[in-house]
Amino acid sequence: DIQLTQSPSFLSASVGDRVTITCRASQDITRYLAWYQQKPGTAPKVLIYGASTLQSGVPSRFSGSGSGTEFTLTISSLQPEDFATYYCQQLDRYPRTFGQGTRLEIK
Amino acid sequence: EVQLVESGGGLVQPGGSLRVSCAASGFNSSNYWMHWVRQAPGKGLVWVSRINPDGSSDSHADSVKGRFSISRDNAKNTVYLQMNSLRADDTAIYYCARATDSSGYFSFDQWGQGTLVTVSS
Known about the structure:
The complex is a heterodimer. Chain A is mostly beta strands. Chain A has strands at about 5, 10-15, 20-25, 35-40, 45-50, 55, 60-65, 70-75, 85-90, 100-105. In chain A, a hairpin with a 6-residue loop joins strand 4 (about 35-40) and strand 5 (about 45-50). Chain B is mainly β. Chain B contains no helices and 11 strands. The mean pLDDT of chain B is about 95. The interface of A and B includes residues 1, 31, 50 and 87 of A.
């Protein structure tokens, strides 16, 4: 199975900050990576697919980059509604594994 | 409005069975690969199973292989997850999700609200 390791697991930041979350894959997944945001008590929501393509309706302050085994999700200027948990997911092979999550909290 | 609605969750004893359903509306689910993802209380997302559009092919996580099966009734726009030999560590919210291919890259672009399955005596 392909393992995805996110770092950090926990991040404390302030409104207006720029933050970056990293996702490392245990083997080459080219660009078959998606990022999701999950708020407490709700289902995940896709932000990015194909490593860098913004899902329709997602604010442009979110961006993704990377290929192969190293990927990043960047939020350019944190807004209050961005405090949530973020997951990466590989869609290259089965099982479709997720990273362990990065919890983003208000400082 | 595109929507996925899960149902059928509840409390079941260890070793028991349960079938959860996912009803799709606002789109023709027979055109999509459909997946189940679970989330134990306070934990992360774990992929469980998937089924192809016509129901002829499926796959499962090793942790549920041989115990869970996935099926679909495209006439009813519904996907099912049959769970047998349930264990305490199967306790989770079960989400169904639609996989969409955009320019060759899939993502899970629609999710249901989830249904809670609790395995306990």
